[in-house]
Amino acid sequence: MAAATQGLVQTSPENNPHVPKRTTVKALVESPALTSIPSNYSYTRYPNESDASDPDEKIPTIDFSLLTSRDPLQRSKVIQDLNKACQDWGFFMLVNHGVPESLLKAVLDGCKEFFNLPMEEKMKFADKDIWKPIRFGTGVDVKVEKFFTWRDFLKVFVHPQFHFLNEPKGFSEVSGEYCKRTREVARELLLAISEALGLEENYIEKAMDLESGFQLFAANLYPRCPQPELVMGIPAHTDHGLLTFLIENEIGGLQIEHNGKWFRVNPLPNSFLVNTADHLQVLSNGKYKSIRHRAVVNNKDTRISIAVPHGPSLDTVVSPAPKLVESESHPAAYMPMKYKDYLNLQLDGKPCLDHNQLTFT
Ligand SMILES: O=C(O)CCC(=O)C(=O)O
Ligand SMILES: [Fe+2]
Questions:
Q1: What family is this (predicted)?
Q2: Which of 82, 99, 199, 301 has the fewest beta carbons under 10 Å from its own?
């Protein structure tokens, strides 16, 4: 999210009179004349952004049921694995998390129905203001502003206050349940991550005020594309919170950066794809990195993903945990910043960590 500011914007239809003036990627794909992409969707990669390959090592998997197990040896082994996954990859697949498969499916189905609503219904939520609790839009490449990415989205603030839409029917209920269950899993995971960092078990819970933690529900729609190699679903970016949970409708597209190379992610069925985000990087004083990731599209199937970032409360001033700062050997690498102020920096479209970074770690 750090690299993308999005809002519903106007396309320039000069090359294609069938393209509606104010559009979404979905409307564009459904317009009868579309055989090639309009030039303003053509994507220029960031420097050093290479093609992705299948990973040459195994992407870490964490078994959540072992974390909550009564056996202390088992728990400490998983905490070690979690530490390694966060440190080496900033990414892992979480299995046996206890959130029912039927709920994952229901919430993905709800998103599909939402994106299938008539344009006028969705447009009621079109807004550029990032503080609108319910927002529908289409992706913009912020490097150049006038170029678009191959993605429509719905973003809803779901904690500490739960906002949602009344339509489609039942979407609010399943999403409410999904957000509550993922929040519980994320908080449990953050207890373990506190321990993995050598902090008190509830350090993150308290210091980040997770009782009032800011949780966002971000649904992404990536319609099939006639020229997928020319566009980008969501450009390389990092997420702003502590941890993001991602699920998708069995259509791949997520790619992650690991040791300077890009890898495709082939998720285990029913797993959460979890990545460490900017504020875990700050809190851990750079021990854990906020992983860069992106999503590509394809010419066969429409992909839907749901990213749920779990962050500190908006008023929390986040700084490196004092225990992880050594004045001589490992000074604080980030200055304290309120989470809300950090989110406002998104408007600049710059990777936000550049703003509060004191030194490069
Ligand atoms: O759709 C995906 O795979 C990635 C989405 C994402 O990174 C985001 O919404 O922040
Ligand atoms: Fe992301």
A1: Belongs to the iron/ascorbate-dependent oxidoreductase family.
A2: 301
Q: Which of 25, 93, 246, 352 to mutate to test the pocket of ligand 1 (most atoms within 8 A of CB)?
A: 246
Convert the pLDDT of each residue in 111-136 to its tens digit: 999 999 999 999 999 988 889 999 99
Quote the pLDDT of residue 10. 40
The response to whether residue 240 sits with its C-beta less than 6 Å from ligand 1 reads no
* Per-chain mean pLDDT for the chain: 88
The domain 59-356: what is its CATH number?
2.60.120.330
Strands 61-63 vs 91-95: parallel, antiparallel or unpaired: parallel
Whether 19 shows a pLDDT value over 50: the answer reads no
Q: Which pTM does this prediction carry?
A: 0.91
- CA–centroid distance, 326 to ligand 1, in Å, is 35
Please give the distance, rounded to the nearest whole angstrom, from the Cα atom of residue 324 to the centre of ligand 2: 26
Give the nearest ligand 1 atom to 237 CA.
7
* Pocket of ligand 1 contains residue 154 by CB under 6 Å: no
Ligand nearest to the CA of 277: 2
pLDDT per position as a tens digit, 60-69: 999 999 998 8
257 alpha carbon to ligand 1 midpoint, in Å? 13
What gap in Å lies between CA 354 and CA 208, rounded to an integer? Answer: 21
Query: Does 333 sit in the ligand 1 pocket, CB within 6 Å?
Result: no
